[in-house]
Amino acid sequence: MNTIIQKNQKGFTLIEVMIAITILAIGILGVAKMQISAMQGNSYAGGLTEATSFAQNKMEELVGLAYDNTDLDDDDGDEPMPDNYIGDGTSGLDDTANPDGSQTGSGATGIQYDILWNIAVDEPAANAKHIRVYVQWQQRGTTRQVILNRIKADI
Hints:
It contains one helix and four strands. The protein has one domain. The protein has one helix at 14-63; strands at 101-106, 112-121, 128-139, 142-153.
């Protein structure tokens, strides 16, 4: 009888090394995908932060005006909103196609922001003005927006 003596071999076979490299590569691809997602999320967050800052600045500017200031007039005559208004974006405070005021701005991210605002006189009550500020921007082919509302009373 032939006795087969196996030596105590140390090390890895080529197949074991190939499997280990494949598993490592799949793991690295997963980490790369997570990194890309994190960068996209950070980009959106930066745009949202800037847009919110523009909206807050415009709102504070408008609220700081005297109640009878002409900048707080309903310039396009679409107020007050009709009783049957359903918020379809065609009139009143939701009218971004023909706002009471508009301007543009850009911040550190290089994004172009459209700042729009509408004023509703005697809404929601007499001697009050409802101010709505929109900030819109394009990001990754999608229109994004921030909306702020405030009531200014004649006191």
